[in-house]
Amino acid sequence: MVVVGFLVDGRVRGPGDRSLAEDAARGMAGGGIQTHRFELVPTPVQSPRILHTPLGPYTHTRSDLVEPAPDPAARFDAEIPDACVVRLADQMAEHVRREAIGTLHAIGLDLPGRVARLVSERTGIPYCVTPRATDLHPEVANAQVREVLRGARHLVLFDEALRPAVEAAFPIRAGDAPLRLRILRRGIDLELFMPLPRQERGSAAVGLCERPELAARLADIDWGRACVVLCAQHPGETEGFGEFLFALPELLRQQPLLQVLVLPLGPIPAATDRLRAALAAGKSELLQGVLQESERYQSLLDHLGRLHAERRTDAWWQCAARLEPERRVRFLGAVSRQEFARLVALADVLVIPGTRPRPLSHLPYEALAAGVLSVASAHSGMGPLAQMLADNISAEIAALCVLRDDAPAVSELEDKLGRFVRLRPELGERLRALAVRKFDIRQTATDLRRLYAEPARATVARA
User: Fold this and answer.
1) Contact 112, 40 (CB under 8 A)
2) Could you read off the pLDDT tens digit of each residue along the chain, which spans 463 residues?
3) What is the CATH number of domain 198-437?
4) Are 123 and 104 spatial neighbours (Cβ–Cβ below 8 Å)?
5) What 3-state DSSP class applies to 281?
6) Shared fold status for 4-187+440-453 and 198-437
7) How far are the Cα atoms of 138, 141, 461 from residue 182, in angstroms, in the given order?
8) Hey, CA dihedral for 7, 358, 176, 454, is it positive or negative?
9) CATH annotation of 4-187+440-453
């Protein structure tokens, strides 16, 4: 029997990070495959450490409910020195011998991939790698990453849509063998993400209050009546989040019980705080100063112009000034994946704002399993998921999930989210059934088990 060890980067936390590794590992454990997770913690570089967690079949122990908050200083501010990687590889080689691990699967081409390559050289066991979205920028394809790919048995993707990004980031050079690319079906931990009837939201929210910091940020929400919009804020999407903020005054006008919960997927940019402060102050002159900082804010300036032309400026500002004082927008800080699962089940819709092309996050698929629809831009990869919704649920509902690129950004958000909060479609069980049929992690685990059991080939992948 193959014993599998998943390597993840300890600097990366949050509801979307490492989710595929978590799901695949638990799915394999549920199928009787002995599975381990190894979290690489490279700081301080003089004494890095590895956190080892044996994974059981779909078990979420109490210790899993609250993960430590990420240390901002430990994120990707600098390259990891080779000496640190070597120390981690030495530790990992001991774990491999002690746990009789036969295959490693690194999630990320940087730290996990580099460690996996060195461990493979020391122990002779094969490894597979799955890149993170941040690995697929051409400037990341340095010599170390290429060595990781050259030594990997397989480059494993869980989304066909990622193939062009991988091929663009790692083009085949003269004399190189093609990438040993394997694309498996995406899987979701269906035991973790479950629909929640509206009448049970209040009691379910009590479980989130076990952590005092989170309890304070969620205090006094009427879960049974509020229209809850959950927003995942990417730190590199300041402009996209600004468009989302500008859509909220109109949304509040339509939905008096609006409640917006923001999950920052990294440090909150200073520009976001200035936007919030300007809206709370109700002063257009403060807002103009912020918007002039970047040409990417042109969509926000255009929206202010439309408000003026339609004589809606005063009404818009009145609603905008209510957002912060009335705690209509709450920034929740870092949450664990288990906390995210509870939050998404409490929400009416998940929004992933953005203006830049990027692969579709795993979060909308997890929300689908929880019976919750997502709204994201067309260039974020939302198209295939929306098409699946159109084919199996409703073309009208599917159209609400995709923000068109050829429409004014803020108005598009106002329209789509406004229709969502008016409809508040009760599709939980139908969405859940679709997720079970299409994204059962057990099938993904079966595919991985077959992949790991494949014998090594004479030729290796070259990037």
Assistant:
1) yes
2) 678 999 999 887 666 666 776 777 777 777 777 889 899 999 887 789 999 988 765 444 333 433 444 443 344 445 788 899 999 999 999 999 999 999 999 999 989 999 999 999 999 999 999 998 778 776 666 778 888 988 999 999 988 888 888 888 888 776 677 788 999 988 888 888 999 988 899 888 988 878 888 999 999 999 989 999 999 988 778 888 999 999 999 999 999 999 999 998 877 788 888 888 888 887 777 777 777 766 778 888 889 899 999 999 999 999 999 998 999 999 998 888 889 999 999 999 999 998 887 778 889 999 999 999 999 998 888 888 999 999 999 999 999 999 998 899 999 999 999 988 887 767 889 999 999 999 988 888 888 888 888 775 543 333 3
3) 3.40.50.2000
4) no
5) helix
6) yes
7) 20, 19, 12
8) positive
9) 3.40.50.2000
Domain boundaries, the chain: 4-187+440-453, 198-437
Distances in whole angstroms, Cα of residue 31 to Cα of each of 71, 444, 448: 34, 11, 11
Sheet with strand 329-331: strands edge to edge? 329-331, 258-264, 227-233, 349-352, 373-377, 402-403
- Distance from C-alpha of 381 to C-alpha of 102, rounded to nearest angstrom: 35
Q: Which two tokens stand for residue 280?
A: 């709370």
**For residue 35, what are the β-bridge partners?**
4, 55
Q: Which two tokens stand for residue 378?
A: 């067309």
